[in-house]
Amino acid sequence: MNISQAAKASGLSPRMIRHYENIGLLQAPARSNAGYRQYNERELHTLRFIHSARQLGFSMDDTAQLLTLWHDRSRSSAEVKALAQHHLQTLEQKIAELQAMHDTLANLAECCQGNERPDCPIINSLATP
């Protein structure tokens, strides 16, 4: 299948497929006589794996590591779990940071009168070092 078909089947854009190939996340596929990329089922399966990992927020490096672990049949599941738990801790930290930002902004918005006067606690807070 060509890159457009592989993109549609994997849920990725052709641009992202080429990017993953360029950074070595995906091995270069065979090419037709005309020079077009030709993807087989194995490569499509890899693209779907990459897409799933990226949707869960894994970094490119973590995704590469997951791919290596996926292809290593002698790996232990403990290695995979450790990688997932580290990513989970990172997500939890980001969630806490986002919640704090939300709470602060909600409080500022609550304090703002939202009227014709120029006095605004939101602007005052942003201007305070």
Based on CA inertia axes, which overall geometry fits? elongated
- Give me the side-by-side strand order of the main sheet: 1-2
- How helix-rich are the residues, as a percent range? 55-70%
**How far apart are the first and last residues' alpha carbons, in Å?**
57 Å
| Series of H and E elements | HHEEHHHH
Largest sheet: number of strands, sense, barrel closure? 2 strands, antiparallel
Question: Any low-confidence stretches, pLDDT <50, length ≥5?
Answer: none
How much strand content do the residues show? under 5%
Structural class: mainly alpha
How many β-strand runs?
A: 2
Mind telling me the C-alpha Rg? 23 Å
Mean pLDDT: 95
How many H/I helical runs?
A: 6
Describe the fold and architecture.
The chain has 129 residues and is mostly helical. The longest helix has 35 residues. A two-stranded antiparallel ribbon has the order 1-2. The chain is built from six helices and two strands, in the order ααββαααα.
